[in-house]
Amino acid sequence: MIESGKCQCGDISYSFDRDNLISTHHCHCSDCQRSTGSGKATILFVAKKHIEIEGTLKFYEVKGSSGSHVRRGFCENCGSAILSYAKEIPHIQYIKAGSLNDSSWVKVDSNFFTDSAHDWNKPDETIKSFKGNPSIISNIKTLFKSF
Ligand SMILES: [Zn+2]
Ligand SMILES: [Zn+2]
Q1: Which of 29, 56, 97, 125 could form a disulfide with 42 if both were Cys (CB 3.0 to 4.6 A apart)?
Q2: For residues 123 and 117, is the Cβ–Cβ distance under 8 A?
Q3: Residue 83 has pLDDT above 70, yes or no
Q4: How far is the CA of 94 from the centre of ligand 2 (A)?
Q5: Which CATH number goes with the domain that contains 117?
């Protein structure tokens, strides 16, 4: 099943096969809050090689709490956040679920950084939660061995 998404103005669009989805998360970190202007970002982990992008993203780099460098990609024209990734592990990208053309199928696996969640946007208690950084890097290294 091919899924697609785009920015608000349409300069950037992307697609990937849903079969290649690794996992889905709510991230309540303060960088995601600032970047989305909301209580959290909902992100889909997909290997870079499985994402086809049309258009050129602009990236803004932020130093993450774990010392990694998170590069946040957005449309330079309309400002829509599309995807981000850690510079140290560029093979996995985190697509913003809100940019999907159809996100009705999305099922979230876990919450990240619940320590910085706000009362007005509380973490979903029905799924697994990580207080801070869920050591994405070691998880992904494990995942990559299975590719
Ligand atoms: Zn745009
Ligand atoms: Zn975050």
Answers
A1: 97
A2: yes
A3: yes
A4: 10
A5: 3.90.1590.10
